[in-house]
């Protein structure tokens, strides 16, 4: 089995005094920084950033580890020589600091997102409602679904569009 090398960014976040706040890696650093901006209490301190691209994730991971050890950013915990696991708990704005991963076929995930949008909600909210219902949280209900005709029309439009491409 061959794996495709995915270009990965190593990013550094600094405050106004050029103090290194955080080092991380991401395939899409703009999206990752938006997540940081929502989750991290220290995000308002970020005044500047730098991005360095690597040809694949393993190269970026090695560079990240080395940079964290040698440059000692204030808010990194992984690979830090000065901070320990659990030290960053107070730095999260959200009670959901760790994204959860599930494997879902790409096309299903896309259709799920479209259906959620048509229903005036998001995938995350629908999944949370499903979990609450499944584990029998008091008062939990199944999420509302868009009408079948709406989702089928959206699916047909997508299939038609793909047929023209």
Structural notes for this entry:
- The chain has 165 residues and is an alpha+beta fold.
- It has a 3-stranded antiparallel sheet with strand order 2-1-3, covered by helices on one side.
- The two termini are 29 Å apart.
- It contains 5 helices and 3 strands.
**Distance N terminus to C terminus?**
29 Å
Tally of alpha and pi helices? 5
Radius of gyration: 20 Å
How do the strands line up in the largest sheet? 2-1-3
Order of helices and strands: EEHEHHHH
Query: How much of the residues is beta strand, in percent?
Result: 5-15%
Shape: extended
Give start-end ranges of low-pLDDT stretches.
none
Largest sheet: 3 strands, antiparallel
Total beta strands: 3
List the helices and strands and how they pair.
Blueprint: E1 8-14, E2 20-26, H1 29-39, E3 48-54, H2 57-71, H3 106-118, H4 123-134, H5 148-164
Antiparallel strand pairs: 1-2, 1-3
Summarize it.
The chain is an alpha+beta fold. It has five helices and three strands, in the order ββαβαααα.
Sum up the structure in keywords:
165 residues; 5 helices; alpha+beta; three-stranded antiparallel beta sheet; single chain; 41% helix
């Amino acid at each position: 089995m061959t794996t495709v090398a995915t270009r990965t960014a190593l990013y550094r976040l600094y405050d106004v005094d050029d103090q290194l706040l955080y080092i991380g890696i991401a395939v899409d650093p703009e999206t990752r920084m938006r997540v940081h901006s929502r989750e991290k209490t220290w995000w308002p301190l970020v005044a500047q950033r730098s991005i360095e691209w690597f040809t694949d994730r393993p190269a970026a991971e090695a560079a990240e580890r080395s940079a964290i050890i040698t440059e000692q950013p204030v808010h990194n915990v992984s690979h830090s020589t000065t901070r320990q696991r659990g030290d960053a708990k107070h730095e999260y704005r959200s009670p959901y600091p760790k994204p959860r991963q599930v494997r879902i076929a790409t096309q299903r995930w896309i259709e799920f997102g479209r259906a959620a949008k048509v229903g005036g909600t998001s995938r995350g909210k629908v999944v949370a409602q499903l979990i609450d219902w499944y584990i029998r949280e008091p008062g939990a209900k199944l999420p509302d679904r868009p009408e079948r005709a709406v989702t089928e029309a959206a699916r047909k439009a997508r299939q038609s569009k793909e047929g023209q491409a």
